[in-house]
Amino acid sequence: MTFLAEHIAVLVVIVPLMAAPLCVVMRCGVASWGWATLVAVGNFFLSIVLIQHVMTNGTIVYDLGGWEGPWGIVYRVDEVGALVVLIISAIAAIVLPYAKESIEREIPKERHYLAYCMMLLCIAGLIGMAVTGDAFNLFVFLEVSSLATYVLIALGSDRRALTAALRYLILGTLGATFYVIGLGMLYMMTGSLNMTDLASLLPAVQNTGTVHVALAFIVVGFGLKLALFPLHVWLPNAYTFAPSAVTAFLAATATKVAVYALIRLIFTVFGDVDPLESYGVRPAVMVLAIAGMFAGSLIAIYQSNVKRLLAYSSVAQVGYMILGISIGNAPAMAGGIIHMFNHALMKGSLFMALGCVFYVIGSVKLEDMAGLGKRMPLTAAAIVGGGFSLIGVPLTVGFISKFYLVQGALTEGMWPVALLIMLSSLLAVIYVWRVVEVMYFRSPAIGCEERSEAPMSLLVPTYVLLGAAFWFGIDATFTGDIAMSAAQTLLGGSK
Amino acid sequence: MIEYAFPGLLNYWIVFLLMMIGLYIVIAHENLIKKIVGLNVFQVSVFVFYISMAKIKGGTAPILADGIEVYSNPLPHVLILTAIVVGVATTALGLALVVRIQESFGTIEDDEVREKEEQDK
Q1: Considering CB atoms only, which of A140, A150, A158 is closest to B82?
Q2: Peptide bond into A283 cis (omega under 30)
């Protein structure tokens, strides 16, 4: 137990990282699925231990190989970091049991074991991004997760998955390289790569052109990775053509981790500089976030492919998270952080429900989903439940995040922003309603009226995640408390 | 002569030039292999950037020995070893994807690929 407590911060990264190559050695789809699922569930328990440890003992600082920071690489896990790790590993532990049937339907048999290997690598990379306290190490984990993501997207059955993966590879690499350029400039000015060390060294040089340019490169680089409007162009195709299980996992985790990394860079590394205020970029970030909320939702309304519709809605939801960061008081910041958690739950369950649809009828086009309420009542109900959450109906998680955001905006006296949040929710009503209308108020095409539900191995994970989306909407004390205290710490550093 | 015109900054001008050439190729060329190569040039410019900033004129390798007082900073050089590995992996994966795009679309010109994608809808 002491071993576990001592090394818990690094175990959550090492376990999936070491487990991944074994999947390749096995060369058997079912065996590597079993192994990957076992590892993902084990990692989920490790991340529960981690968050309990952080909640009782405070922030963990772990020196890799016993080399203390700022010379060695350190891992630094605070409350939000532990929450992000919990999100990633929980989603992985729910998606992997689901993945077996779904991947067997969508990926040729000889590539199954590679898909599970890449899933584990992607988990390791994303968790690494959340726990690391070293800015260059962040880049390495970013690339580990990104390279795995490109492969996973390219495994999609449609040939457009290949071009979607290549375009994401080009833009993703540009984004990551931008981050490295920015980091190089910070290193030039401070001589350090450790995040806490950088935070203490930066204020002395904050008014140099080099640091300004560095911050610009870093924000644009991560803006590409987290699909901040108008840098989101890679996202819709990538989500649409990736295999269903992959989309569910990526939509629930990848962009959120990038948002979290950006939060750390702006509020921890640049914490004492307070770049949003002192460089006067707060309005610009806010405008981009709001533009993303509206553009994403508006484009979503006109989509005929439901997977693509939800992908555009993801662009809008990222807008809410960035808006929470840009308003700059504790409730709004907490709203942004809670929304990372909540959006993972609702988008994950929605994409998993769509995976069920694809499994049974072989399409996720809106016109093919006519009469789905009769044919697949459980799946259709799951889509409606997730849709409610996207809109932000009370008793769902979506309501909680919007409640915090609106509260934050009103505290700052930004009532137009609060109004815009409400308005963009109305747009969500429209695109969710379009899907509901087709599923429940149109009769199915002739010849496919009979009831045919997706297998239990797909439905149960979907409903577990959807259940969580309602559970944390009814009782938000766990997520609310963590997010609120984290927001106060993050903003405290900048005042 | 050139060194005299940009005292001490020649490397950074080269970095800047390479970066823009790489970015231009990624944006402007339709051929997917050229795009990947452009991406590579772009990444290499960043490698040069890191290596230049750590180099000190007259500095040697950082070895604890008599007579060595000025030495280059080894850390950025080591970081770039990591970045080179990442770059190689990205290029390999990108080229592998181009091969599969050629197999399933029959072309690697981005505009022709786009046309065929439109037909898939």
Answers
A1: A140
A2: no
ipTM of the complex: 0.93
Q: Residue by residue, what is the 3-state secondary structure of A397-462?
A: HHHHHHHHHHHHHHHCCCHHHHHHHHHHHHHHHHHHHHHHHHHHHCCCCCCCCCCCCCCHHHHHHH
Q: Do B113 and A163 touch (CB under 8 A)?
A: yes
In eight-state DSSP terms, residue A365 is: B
Q: State pTM to two decimals.
A: 0.93
Q: Hey, where are the domains in chain B?
A: 2-57+72-120
B2-57+72-120: what fold? Helix Hairpins (1.10.287)
- What is the C-alpha to C-alpha distance for residues A83 and A12, in angstroms, rounded to an integer? 13
A128-186 residue pLDDT tens: 999 999 999 999 999 999 999 999 999 988 889 999 999 999 999 999 999 999 999 99
Which two structure tokens, joined as six digits, stand for A169?
């590879």
Residue A493 gets the label, from left (phi > 0), alpha (psi -120 to 50) or beta, of alpha
Shortest distance, CA B43 to any CA of chain A (angstroms): 7
Task: Place B6 in a pLDDT band, splitting at 50, 70 and 90.
Answer: low
For chain B, how many residues are written?
121
Amino acid identity of residue A421, one-letter, is: I
Give the distance, in angstroms, between the CA of residue A82 and the centroid of all CA atoms in the same chain: 14
